[in-house]
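Task: sequence design from structure.
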């Protein structure tokens, strides 16, 4: 690994145009890679193999990862490999860079029940379009609100004959987790088959390899969960997967535990002091310019709109969605609910104050099937107002990653770290 250098140019082709007839309008297009010759690649290994000569670290990307735990849009940890910009198509022309067609954020106000009815309308249309031709549907079901709402709408469509009724739900986690417990109960209410998948130290070890090979360590292995185990299920040509990763952000307006009403632009900082001060100072200046350049593309939009687009481009697209791009290659195509332009245009038209848990709780109650009566894994309470906690011994954690890295995987992780390599980069301190 050679010395770091500043990447020449930012490698971006713009945010892209929101167009319902174009695949770039969908928010669930995960980040693939662009090699040194500008060719789109499915995974990082393919992209980096095209580099002729020493592979160089992108110091700005390292500074971004240390500052935010995600890499800003368009970059990877390797200087010669770019990531496809948010919503853009690889090789897009300059005409595709005009962001005037990007859906606008509005200030519509509605009571939760009315907003929920409109949300359900858009979800039905989206799922019927996305899964109308699927022969079997696999629902990635957690113990949360988003996947059970998506599942309830899907099952209702199946009962109407608009999508296949061959639906199975998959829930991963440690056996004692609330997600596993409530996921099984939700599946029973919806009357679909349910497949539990254990999560253990071996999965985390495998995810370290997958993250390096497929994603260039751009995504922490803790975000990959049981992707390999899911890929080992039986899959056929007509299979399709439904995921609900966008529900928390696009649906309820919450990113990194902060609601959109508390907008704050990312501020770079090496909080752990892991980079050499002089290296971080240079990289920080480039990182600030990257963030500012992205905001300039959204000139004239409200602070809420800019903040949401920043979170979607830098954080969601770079950290949460790549898992599903990998799953789509090794298992079956994945559709993210609320990724359709019509769905998120509706949500963006609402005041951020309307996009909250009350709207989702109302939507779940309107779905029926008893799914609103089952506690939410995060709170251990049903979604009704003033509902009491369910008394049980189940764990709020889906995994035990900190314990596994400190115990079961400690020796192998220590053996894989090379002080000489870190010193050779001239980036890291200590």
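Answer:
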């Amino acid at each position: 690994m050679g010395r770091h250098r500043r990447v020449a140019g930012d490698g971006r082709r713009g945010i892209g145009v929101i167009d319902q007839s174009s695949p770039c309008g969908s928010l669930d297009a995960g980040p693939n890679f662009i090699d040194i010759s500008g060719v789109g690649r499915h995974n990082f290994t393919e992209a980096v193999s095209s580099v002729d000569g020493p592979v160089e670290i992108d110091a700005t990307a390292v500074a971004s990862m240390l500052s935010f735990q995600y890499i800003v849009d368009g970059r990877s940890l390797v200087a010669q490999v770019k990531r496809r910009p948010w919503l853009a198509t690889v090789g897009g022309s300059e005409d595709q860079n005009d962001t005037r067609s990007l859906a606008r954020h509005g200030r519509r106000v509605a009571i939760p029940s009315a907003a929920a009815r409109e949300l359900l309308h858009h979800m039905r249309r989206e799922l019927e379009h996305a899964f109308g031709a699927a022969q079997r549907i696999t629902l990635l079901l957690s113990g949360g609100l988003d996947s059970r709402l998506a599942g309830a709408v899907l099952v209702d469509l199946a009962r109407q004959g608009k999508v296949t009724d061959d639906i199975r739900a998959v829930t991963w986690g440690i056996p004692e987790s609330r997600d596993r417990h409530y996921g099984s109960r939700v599946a029973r209410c919806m009357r679909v088959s349910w497949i539990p998948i254990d999560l253990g130290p071996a999965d985390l070890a495998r995810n370290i390899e997958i993250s390096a090979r497929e994603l260039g360590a751009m995504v922490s292995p803790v975000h990959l969960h049981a992707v390999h185990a899911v890929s080992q299920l039986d899959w056929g040509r007509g299979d399709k997967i439904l995921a609900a990763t966008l529900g928390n952000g696009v649906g309820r307006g919450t990113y990194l535990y902060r609601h959109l009403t508390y907008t704050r632009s990312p501020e770079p900082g090496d909080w752990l002091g892991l980079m050499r001060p002089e290296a971080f100072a240079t990289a920080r200046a480039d990182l600030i310019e990257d963030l500012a350049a992205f905001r300039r593309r959204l000139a004239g939009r409200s602070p809420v709109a800019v903040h949401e687009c920043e979170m979607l481009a830098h954080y969601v697209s770079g950290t949460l969605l790549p898992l599903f791009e990998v799953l789509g290659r090794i298992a079956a195509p994945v559709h993210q609910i609320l990724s359709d332009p019509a769905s998120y245009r509706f949500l963006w038209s609402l005041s951020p104050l309307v996009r909250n848990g009350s709207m989702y709780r109302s939507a779940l109650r309107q779905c029926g099937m008893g799914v609103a009566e089952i506690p939410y894994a995060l709170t251990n309470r049903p979604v009704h107002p003033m509902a009491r906690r369910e008394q049980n011994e189940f764990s709020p954690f889906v995994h035990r990653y900190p314990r596994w890295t400190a115990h079961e995987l400690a020796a192998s992780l220590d053996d894989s770290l090379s002080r000489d390599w870190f010193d050779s980069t001239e980036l890291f301190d200590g």
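Residues 30 and 322 are 5 Å apart (CA to CA).
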